[in-house]
Here is the input.
Amino acid sequence: MIVDFVNLQKRVGVKGHDNTEGSKVSPYPGEMVVNIVKFGNKKHSMSARELVDLISDSVPAHTQIEILKQTYPNGVVRGNLFTIGSLSGEAGKSLKIDINPRSPYFMKGQDFNGSDGVGGIVKIMMEGRNMKLSEVKEYFADYVSDNRPVEDIVSPIINTQMKEQININTPYDSEHRYLNAHGEILCLVRRYNTVDQEGNPVLDGHGKPKKEFRQFTGQSNYPRMPDVRPLYNIPNIIASEKIIWVEGEKCADALNELGYTATCTMGGAGMLSRKSANLFDFSPLQDKELIIWPDNDTAGKKVAELVQDLAMNANAKSVTMLTPPRGKPERWDVVDAIAEHFDINQFLNTNVKQVKKNINLLDDSLLVNRFVGQAPEQKFLIGETLPLGVPIIFSAAGDAGKGMMTLDLAMKISSGQPMSSAFGGTINEFGNAIIFTAEDDEDEMHRRVERLDELNDRSSFKHELRIVSLPNVGGVFPIMQETHEGYRTSEEFDKLYEQIKQMNDLKLIVFDPLASFVHADVNADPAAGAALTGLLAQIATETGASVIMCHHMTKVKEDLVVSTPEQARNMIRGTSALVDGVRCAFALWQVDEATGRRRCQDLGIDYQRNRCFDGAVVKSNGPANRAIRHFIRDMFSGLLVDKSEEIQRLHTGSNREIKKSALMTWITICENEGRAMTQQSGADALLQRMSADHDAPKVLNNCTQRMLDSLVRELIQEGHLAKYSFSVSGGRKWLGACDGPMSRGEYEAETARDNV
Here is the structure.
């Protein structure tokens, strides 16, 4: 049976040009140039198989190998094997081609025998260079002396291992029927396992049996692809709302037996490419929800991305992409999952990383009445502070301690210890975390981790924390950069992101700082800010993690004191699009010196510059606690620790009452002993006596003068305390109980005072 290869494959000729002597100049640099030979029309044309054998026997092995390398510059030589992602030419190692000239499988691939029956270097040139069969013969005219014409046809398929012609009567190992909507057979796909000369199964490099597939359309006793290649399992696709696409019929059948509706395209990943996509009919997926389950290899990911695009073009209702679990072997698929008793249902429901939908404004599913019942609860990474699964800007001045705070947060999240707190709130979610730091090398990160975890608890964390110090891995890479085509992600990040999406239970991703990871002017160009926040939102949505981007604030002028979250928000660098585009922004700012000194005195610690900060949620698209939190730096670890509640207790509530009671008791005792004190002046002032008197109440140790004045004022107002003077001019005012010795005129000072 003759197949019109021109119409079926829509191939184009070699992109070369003719020189003055009539020879075709190769478009591949350094490659040999062959003469074009004109073939006359003979009664009997050369079959594809004959041409393959003729070229394989005539063209030197080293020439074939060189052509292979030039055709696929992304390929890699590993011993006697040449590895490439697929015959389409993308990088990878899914396809292995034997380049050992002494091997009986020379120039043969392990997943490489197509339905056109053409193998070896001929197949490589037809697929890799978009050449017709006749053009391949012309290319090797210097070696092929046979002058019979070769038409652009595919002759009957030959099993290259068995050296026999396969036809409808050849025994097969399994059969899969492609049906139309009425259940009528459109095509039969039969599997033939490859065996050696002794009849033993031949295994591929992954330990799986090598196989060949042939398609029969009913129009011939010999294999051929249908002109329009249908999806597998069409009757059930029509009857179902949710469909799962997998790479092969065996995987589809395995899922169908479990009660799912699964489909695939004939020929597997090797036959579906962007140049052949127009031959496949995806129309049955219109208005369907499609889930794509790719094989765990490079070729699988490539073809999955193509299926995603084709399904969207066919007006699928939605398309979701699964990411194979981390740690699974290469080429892991549905059959492997079932064999290991993998929880497929949970995988389908929880591992969705990417969702694409076609928008149809005439669809009633967009009406507001779909929002009925109780709304989904907003999850928080940190209670009422940082939401889960959203992009977050964390802004502070340089050297404030952003890196230590995010490191502390990541360590606590991965530790799995309940009641852990950070950023002024209690951590609600625990799981895996990743930190990308552009400024700190591994030595510095080790020192920081050590200061935060002196007891080495990190060796027993329940979850994983991965820290990538970019100075130790070749330097900084952009996650987004400005190109002549606009703002795009970088190739380096794209590769890392594929790995990120394989991590399960991811709760936090940190990029520190923004300026190192974004090669675009987010400070001046609103489009750059919008592009960045859109990218961060995509990462957060697809991973389910909170994505924190550490960013700088503008320098505070000497005469400017930041006192409100609104002021802090306005000081975040960048255009308004940057802050407006994220779901949450947290800012940290240093307090003025007077406030810092007062707080340190209240807490009984030494004041140092850069020690006292305030922080708050300055932007949130949902409910959030916007109260200002007070942070004090721990001088050993360098971590800013939230001391808000402690500071508040010093000024309010039961703690204040304890201090006031202790102060009144102490004043009364001193008065009764003839050692009365003044409120502020002289050596007998409260604050001076507290530091000198070993009998002073310990609870008052952290009191400032402001605090003491406040307590004295309350005691006087409450009628417990009064001020007395013993000099004609008034002199100093001595503190005493309203019913004490001074009130009765019975006071006897231990030392001379201004007594009358």
